[in-house]
Design brief:
The protein contains 4 helices and 4 strands; from the N terminus they run αααββαββ. It has 166 residues and is an alpha+beta fold. The chain folds into 2 domains: 78 residues; 78 residues, Ribosomal protein S6/Translation elongation factor EF1B (Alpha-Beta Plaits). The radius of gyration is 40 Å and the shape is rod-shaped.
Length: 166
C-alpha cells in the first residue's frame, strides 16, 4: 500500500511540473490512445464477429431449408414404404398410372387369390418404361415379368407386364 502512495505522489509531482499546454497535449494524446485501444480491442473485433455471424446465420438458414426438404422427402418415402396394399388398390393404382400416361391397356387383370396383376398393351416404349417406373414408385409391388415385342410401327411395342404382391 505504501508503494502505491509513493507512485501516486511521484505522478502528482510529475504532473504538477508540466505546463498547462503539456497537460492538454498529454490528455488529448491519452484520450486518443484510449479510443484507439477501445476500437482495436473491442469495437473492431465485435464488428468482425457480427459480420462472420451474419454469414454463418445465412448458411444455417440454407441448411435448415435443406433439412426441411429432406424431412419432407423422408416422410414421403416413409408413406410409400408402408404395406404395398391390396390387389384392389393395385388395380386402382395401375388404372391411374395408365390414365396419367395416356395409355389404354388391351387387358388389365388382377388376380386377388394369387395376388398378381397383369397388363398387356400396345404403346410407345418410353411410356411403357414410365409406367413401370410409376408402378414401382407408387405400389411397391415388384415386377415379376416384362415382355416387349416390336410392332411394324416404329417406336411402338406390344408389352406384357406382370406384378406380384410381396
Amino acid at each position: 500500500m505504501k508503494a502505491f502512495h509513493l507512485a501516486e505522489k511521484r505522478w502528482r509531482n510529475t504532473w504538477a511540473r508540466r505546463s498547462s499546454r503539456e497537460r492538454v497535449f498529454l490528455s488529448v494524446g491519452a484520450a486518443l490512445l484510449a479510443a484507439a485501444l477501445a476500437w482495436g480491442a473491442i469495437w473492431q473485433p465485435a464488428q468482425e464477429a457480427r459480420t462472420r455471424l451474419a454469414r454463418r446465420n445465412a448458411a444455417l438458414e440454407i441448411q435448415v431449408a435443406q433439412i426441411g426438404a429432406l424431412a419432407r422427402d423422408a416422410a414421403t418415402l416413409r408413406a410409400r414404404s408402408q404395406a404395398p396394399g391390396t390387389p384392389e388398390q393395385m388395380k386402382t393404382r395401375l388404372e391411374t398410372a395408365l390414365a396419367t400416361l395416356g395409355l389404354k391397356p388391351g387387358t388389365l387383370e388382377v388376380d386377388t387369390q394369387n395376388r398378381q396383376a397383369r397388363v398387356s398393351l400396345e404403346a410407345p416404349f418410353d411410356r411403357c418404361i414410365a409406367l413401370l417406373d410409376t408402378v414401382r414408385r407408387d405400389s411397391r409391388w415388384p415386377l415379376t415379368q416384362a415382355r416387349f415385342e416390336a410392332t411394324a410401327q416404329t417406336g411402338l411395342v406390344r408389352a406384357q407386364l406382370s406384378w406380384s404382391q410381396p
